[in-house]
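Technical annex, item 7. During the second reporting period the consortium partners agreed on a shared format for inverse folding records so that results from different sites could be compared directly. Each record opens with the tokenized structure and is followed by the designed sequence. A conforming record, contributed by the partner at site C, is shown below for reference.
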């Protein structure tokens, strides 16, 4: 991926080495941009996130702490005493910070133009870099939480050491695979602006676990599709190199619920899926990538996932 020398976002909050202090100010409940999920991108319902098991905590998606708390309306801590999980740092931390800032900047440019085309204003999410542990507006998170989006403060969080795990544990190397991680979480922010996430928080109160899981899959696949939309425009700008698309599709395959369950428990339980199978994640990323149209990402109306 051709990323060096491009604009970097200044919307980065570097909390590495801060000891996991609370990030952000007062709590808020985002989702004002497109009330009710209007517009051609399809409204629908929203985040899910009942956790699978074990390494499922590593896959892309919403911070599971939000769901464990039972409410997106207020921040929660799961209690003190949790030690930071020590993991190897990404090879070159400074270069990785520049990479993340560059990818985030490009998502800002892409979604600003998409929203502008519909007469809307895109509000970009801050991205918080942390190491070991962090206290977000969604509660305490350790490195084991993986990258996540917190709807209570509208921020994306990532420990850069996750990229080592993406390559070593999930066998998904490559800079475009790493960019996909960021674009997926930004996709959740887009859903937040569309009103998708608040809609699910309200509806899930009356849903059983199986129904909540099913809706969770649809929101995660939509975030994958939005990541593909960003990838489409990155390709048009000439940023992609040979093999980049394959890197992202491989990452989508490796973090499918079925792949994770096979890796962690040796068998698959489809009714517990909350992010989608490998084939589904790969398919929806490719839909966004091929079309470059966020309107094609209506996973809530689609009969086939």
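Designed sequence (site C submission):
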């Amino acid at each position: 991926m051709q990323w060096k020398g491009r604009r970097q976002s200044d919307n980065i909050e570097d909390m590495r080495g801060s000891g996991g202090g609370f990030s952000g100010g007062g709590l808020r409940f985002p989702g004002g941009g497109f009330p009710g999920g209007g517009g051609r991108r399809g409204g629908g319902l929203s985040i899910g996130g009942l956790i699978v098991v074990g390494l499922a905590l590593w896959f892309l998606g919403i911070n599971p702490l939000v769901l464990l708390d039972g409410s997106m309306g207020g921040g929660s801590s799961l209690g003190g005493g949790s030690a930071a999980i020590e993991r190897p740092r990404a090879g070159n931390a400074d270069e990785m910070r520049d990479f993340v800032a560059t990818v985030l900047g490009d998502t800002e440019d892409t979604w600003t133009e998409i929203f502008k085309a519909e007469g809307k204003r895109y509000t970009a999410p801050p991205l918080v870099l942390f190491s070991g542990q962090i206290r977000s507006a969604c509660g305490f998170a350790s490195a084991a939480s993986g990258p996540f989006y917190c709807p209570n403060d509208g921020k994306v969080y990532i420990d850069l050491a996750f990229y080592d795990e993406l390559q070593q544990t999930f066998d998904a190397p490559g800079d475009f695979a790493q960019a996909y991680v960021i674009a997926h979480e930004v996709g959740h922010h887009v859903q937040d602006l569309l009103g998708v996430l608040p809609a699910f928080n309200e509806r899930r109160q009356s849903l059983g676990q199986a129904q909540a899981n099913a809706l969770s899959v649809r929101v995660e696949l939509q975030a994958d599709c939005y990541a593909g939309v960003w990838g489409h425009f990155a390709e048009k700008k000439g940023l992609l190199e040979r093999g980049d698309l394959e890197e992202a599709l491989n990452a989508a395959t490796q973090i499918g619920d079925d792949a994770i369950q096979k890796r962690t428990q040796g068998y698959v339980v489809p009714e517990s899926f909350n992010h989608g199978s490998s084939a589904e994640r790969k398919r929806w990323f490719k839909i966004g990538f091929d079309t470059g149209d966020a309107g094609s990402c209506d996973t809530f109306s689609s009969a086939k996932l």
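Residues 225 and 285 are 4 Å apart (CA to CA). The beta strands are 12-14, 127-129, 133-136, 139-142, 148-150, 155-158. All partners now use this format for quarterly exchanges.
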